[in-house]
Amino acid sequence: MITASLLGPVDILAQEVVSGVAIIEFVLLGLVIINLAARMIAHRGYVNAAREDGADGVSRSLFLEATDVLIVLGGFYYATVHLHGGVVFATLAVGMFITDFFEFEARLVEARKDAPLERPKAALFASALVFLYIAYQSLFFIIKPLWDAVI
C-alpha cells in the first residue's frame, strides 16, 4: 500500500510512539532542553567576552542560534503532524526566536556601556513557556490515568 508522504523520509517523525505521542514531540522536547543548556553556555560566553574584550568581543552564539532555528523549523513540521499543537508550539517558538534576537542586542548595549550583563530574562521566560508546552504535549501520557480518574 502506498501512503501519501509530505516530506518523504522526514515523515518518520510523525509516527506514534506511545499513547498518541509522535516522535517529533520527543525530538522537540530534546531540542528545547538542549536550547536551555545552550542559552546558559552562551550567556556565560557573553559575560566572559564582555569582561575581556568589551562590546567588540561579544558575538552571537552559533550553537544557540542553530537550536533556535531547529526548534522553529521543527515547530512548523509539528504543525503538519498535529495542527493545533503544532501551531501553538510554532507560535511560541517564533516568539522565543524573536526574543533571543532582541536579548542579544540588549546584551550588546550593556557591554557598550560597560554595565554588568544581566540574565536574558525575557528569553528565559519564552524558553520556559516553550519547554512547558512541549513537555505537556509529549509527557501528558504519564499522568493521563490520574487525570482521567479525577476529571
From TrEMBL:
Domain of life: Archaea
Keywords tagged on the record: Membrane, Transmembrane, Transmembrane helix
Membrane as UniProt keyword: yes
Residue ranges annotated for the DUF7313 domain, each copy included: 4-151
Protein known as: DUF7313 domain-containing protein
Alphabetized InterPro entries for the sequence: DUF7313
Residue spans crossing the bilayer: 20-41, 62-79, 85-102, 122-143
Keyword Iron (UniProt): no
